[in-house]
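Lecture notes, unit on protein representations.

Consider one protein chain, 206 amino acids long.
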Amino acid sequence: MNQGEPLVLIISGPSGSGKSTLAEKILALPGTMLSVSCTTRPPRKTETDGKWYNFVSEPEFHQMVARGDFLEYAQVFGKHWYGTPRRWLDEAAALKKDLVLEIDVQGALQVKHKLPGAVAIFVLPPSRAELERRIRARGQDSEEEIGRRLERARQEMLNYSSYDFAVINDELDRAGREVQAIAIGSRCGVPRNEERIREILKSFGG
């Protein structure tokens, strides 16, 4: 791995698993930055443009696809489009920071294919019943939509073996410590530090 390349940390999982909250735990570590996704969905009342998402029109999104601006992109639930702009990789490299991607399972699998050195963390709810409780607590979805989300979650969880780590989000403080430990441990990987290790070896004359 090139020393100049940023460490890419993917945090992914079913809707309602708590991946955004755990991404914030990683972003609390020094030397990290968020990759802000683009989406064609309208912002929710609590959301501001540019924080977690840049909200764009569908024509704008497809222009970005045509220009090759995205590292990954996908249509979710057959409705809105989501994508990760490539420019965040360049920005993270320039700032010498680790890049955190909080994306869905489709996007995570695309990024792992393109960047095999990325570290992918899969966030799971402790049970179907708990995931349903969390989705209902948001009060945003119809019964039909809740059913769709639960079935999609089941299908997404079948991809668990494509990830490097799994964190079961049943207790937030513990899960937060786990994702931070994964991020810190990933910084110590031999391939990431090989250039520096070789320099140290040279100082020993070999």
